[in-house]
Design brief:
The chain has 78 residues and is an all-alpha fold. The protein is built from 3 helices and no strands.
Length: 78
């Protein structure tokens, strides 16, 4: 769906201002390649935070705490 919307937007831009549409068509792969390192950094930071969360919650998990049990207890109490 996103691809279809992007294609329709590009077609509208092509009708309104074809040089800008062709420039966008040429620059899009270059911008995508330039954004790859930032995406990798974002994935790495997200993985580090998930690892830290897992390490911090490990003692509670070893003692038997489960996220689903607490939701069930709170839902039953209400």
């Amino acid at each position: 769906m996103k691809t279809l919307i992007a294609f329709i937007a590009w077609c509208i831009l092509f009708v309104l201002c074809w040089p800008l549409a062709l420039l966008a068509l040429v620059l899009w792969p270059i911008l995508w390649l330039l954004s790859l390192p930032f995406r990798l950094v974002g994935i790495t930071v997200s993985a580090v935070f998930a690892f830290l969360r897992a390490v911090l919650f490990l003692p509670a998990r070893l003692l038997g705490w489960r996220p689903d049990q607490t939701r069930a207890v709170h839902a039953a109490a209400a």
